[in-house]
Write a structure and sequence with these properties.
The radius of gyration is 38 Å and the shape is elongated. The protein is an alpha+beta fold. α5 packs antiparallel against α6 and α11 packs antiparallel against α12. The chain has 14 helices and 38 strands. About 25% of the residues lie in helices and about 35% in strands. The protein folds into 6 domains: about 150 residues, no CATH class; about 45 residues, SH3 type barrels (Roll); about 120 residues, Roll (SH3 type barrels), CATH 2.30.30; about 180 residues, Serine Threonine Protein Phosphatase 5, Tetratricopeptide repeat (Alpha Horseshoe), CATH 1.25.40; about 55 residues, no CATH class; about 100 residues. Strands 30-31-32-33-34-35-36-37 form an 8-stranded antiparallel barrel. Strands 16, 19, 20, 21, 22, 24 and 25 form a 7-stranded mixed sheet that branches. This is Tudor-knot domain-containing protein.
Length: about 725
Amino acid sequence: MRPQMRLSSLTAYLILFLILIVLFTFFDHSIALGASYNVGDTVCVQSEDNWGWYEGSILEISGDKARVHYPDYGDQYDDQWTPLMYFNPPYSFDVGDEVIVQDSRDFSIYWPAEIVDTRDDEYKVHYDGYDSSWDEWVDRCRIFPEPKIGDAVYARYSTGYVFGYLISRDGERWTVRYKGWDSSQDLILEWEDEVGSGDIMPCPPGEQEYEEAFLASKVPVSYPATTSIYHYEPVEAPDPNHNPPETKPIGIGNIAHGGDTLDLVVQVPRFEDWIDIYLAIQVAGSIYILGADEQFYPLDRGLKRWRTHLMYQPLYTLFHDIPVSSLPQGDIYFYLLVSPKDDLTRYYLWYTNVSTIRQGYFTGSALMSQDDLAALASSIINDMVQKGSVTWYEQVENFILENRDSFEVDPYNILAWIFFNQNNIYPFCWAVFKELQQDASNPLSLNSAAVCLFELDDIETGGRLLDLAYTEAPGLPITYENGAYYYDQKGMAQKALEMKQKAAQGDGANPYSAWDGYHYALGHGLTDYTDTFDSMIPSNFSLLKSDGSMGAGPAKTAVCCSCNGGFYYDVQECVASCEVSLACFTSICTPNLQCCWQKTPFSLSPKICFPPQGLQACLAVDEKGNVSLEIGGGFAGIGVYVGLQRDFKGNYTAYLAPGTSIGIGTKITLVSTDPKARKGAMEYGVAQGASYSGLGLSIGLSSSDLWHKSPICDLNYIGQ
């Protein structure tokens, strides 16, 4: 029984440490490398880019770096900061001294030589094995003392140079004891090999001290003498430092710096002997521990080892790119414990924590949780129903539920567009939040919901919905446009202009955004922005500025493609979309009907009927110039019409149009002269109507694959 009781005590002891938040004071373990330097000192500096040595004077020192002025290069490098480890005081030599000289073309080669003369800051050298015709004057920073046994050097190995020590010499051959670190195994390696004199590079004192300090930092970690607990600020990637107080074995991705995704990446430094590794997460007040099967288990089910019988843990990713929005809001703690194998009486425990509560881009408030969003949607929907006709809402919703699979476009989206264009706010808000209940992460739906709340004078909650829209899809012009409205309503004109500027610069931005931003800046006296917006208004934009002038921005050209009705700024984009040759173009467009109407899922259709009820004839003209004549009527709550439409391109289409008394209907294509029309194709729409002076008047919106006016057609002289 004693071992079982002892294990239970240790488990409770570990749980206590996992839950406690412990504060630590860390010591500065930085190492001063190389000689001591002062501003004004003359130094030789090795380039980090090409290994060449250059003479200069120190302008400024900050920590372990300095700025240097190089007399031979003017001031073009004066603002560069170089680590002091690459500095070396100039050597002083006498005639007859044996030296090595850096080649003036290949900085990795050093030639054995002898000093034969001196002048100022140069030395004349004679190269071993060459006649005096090769003698030359060399800058002092390219000359180093001849290496001796015991010196630290960089010696060629394979295709590079590795740090090591000279241990013997036989003529022009040197034996080098290399010391390197294998990052894949977190292991210091030592080996010996022979090289020629030309395969040795000097290792100045600063670099030698750095190399030795680095290797010392990679000595395997000793077992802990007792229990040691270390907390550290969250980091994106793990740092397996061999000094336990500085080790950061858990990286959590960009959430560590306020990003939107969470990773869990682990790396443990090499230990002197076998170890066990435990990994745990604390979320929403509960602790879960990772098992060997890489499944998390509640801690009350007992301790589970994640890894055992190993000496180090290479970089390992447990999970990647988890959206922060999908995590519970609050603090998440990550724990990693390393103990000697099968011995939990002593261990290192590292932990870090991060908050998943994010501040909104617009409001600066904590992001609204999914539960709060769902509650808001339910509240708005109920409120809108109570302010309207409960029966009407029920009829519409029942019809949508029964026919949802028949709609290519979300029917709530169709309704929202209709009611917004009618300025009918209550059913607009109802439809928007019903749509949001279907997909709470849709940034366009979140924008529409924000507009609803703005219309209901709830500016702050509308701003919080924009925060969510920005989180889901940063950079949408419509989000910036609505953000500008949010800031304007709060009296923050400059912030509103910043949003308008972002909207005007976004992909797919309408030239009108820049035009609107220009006049907003002008109206608020913020003239610093007027030039910016003016330069973004195309000079061929049809709307003139308030002073009657055109925009100062570059003119935009456009291409209309006959194969798909698409409207493009780029010819090649049109070709790629059509997957055919240039024959797909009707023209490099001038403003004509075919080019200025673009496909859309929505078509607005006013209609007039006589008589207002029963068997009637109806004439409809939509905003594109398509004209339809329908004959039919409504009986027992069901309406059936037969229609003929002439579109703006001169095509004729016969169709059947059944509908319901609440205004939701279907249009079925029977036959058409349009080669792109498909027999049996269906369109869906919603209409609202009333009787006036013996006529039936209605306006509707349909989800058809028809054409509408492109805002780009507000450009004059398109294609010129």
